[in-house]
Design brief:
By secondary structure, the chain is an alpha+beta fold. It is built from 8 helices and 4 strands; from the N terminus they run H-H-H-H-H-H-H-E-E-E-H-E. Strands 2-1-3-4 form a 4-stranded mixed sheet, with no helix packed on it.
Amino acid sequence: MTGEITGGPELAAALAAGQTRLRTLLGGLTDDDARAPSALPGWTRGHVLTHIEGVGLALARQARYAKRGKLIEVYDGGRGARDAAIEAGHGRPAAQLAEALGDALDEAEASWAAVGPDDWDLPVSYRDGTVATAGLAWWRELEIHTADALLGRTAEDWSPELCTHLIGFLSARVPDGIRLTLGSADGGWSFVRGEGTPVAVTGRPADLAAWLAGRVPPRPLTGDPLPTLGSWP
């Protein structure tokens, strides 16, 4: 597979591209569009866009405060406040949704562009990790939920670098007792995770990444019956 992005200028460039792309996709959003279903059961596009707004701000401030030598909670008020904000904000008119998300993207762009070469290893409270940990989380949230919003971009469009990252990160969902081998249909690469009963699944990187992310793969996977995945790591 394509070499994995772990931080640095490559991650900064990937974030900048994803943020710009989402901003472009918001153009022309109507109230009917905002109320329409997303790819996530029970969530409209408004839910997804409000979630992207909140998580974008939350992770951007992880980077911003890390540069000041401070650790700060991911969400003010924790997960409960995050969920309440989504419920309170998803029904806003499309213009308000787009404006608020645009403002959040402004903040994200400024925060991540300000991360210097020596800043990626600074500690953050998110997962007791580093600025790079938070940046990778924003990359996942940004790209996966942009596809979930059904605004024209799908998992089919995910970059090889993103697919490599998602397969590596999300393979932690493989349940105990299974030795899962993920392979490309052309035999060009394989990825093995876990120990136990051998299970082989074959597909394109985007299909495998989508499945591991709990989404419907753009094209069907082949091989053994797919195991039930565990919770998000």
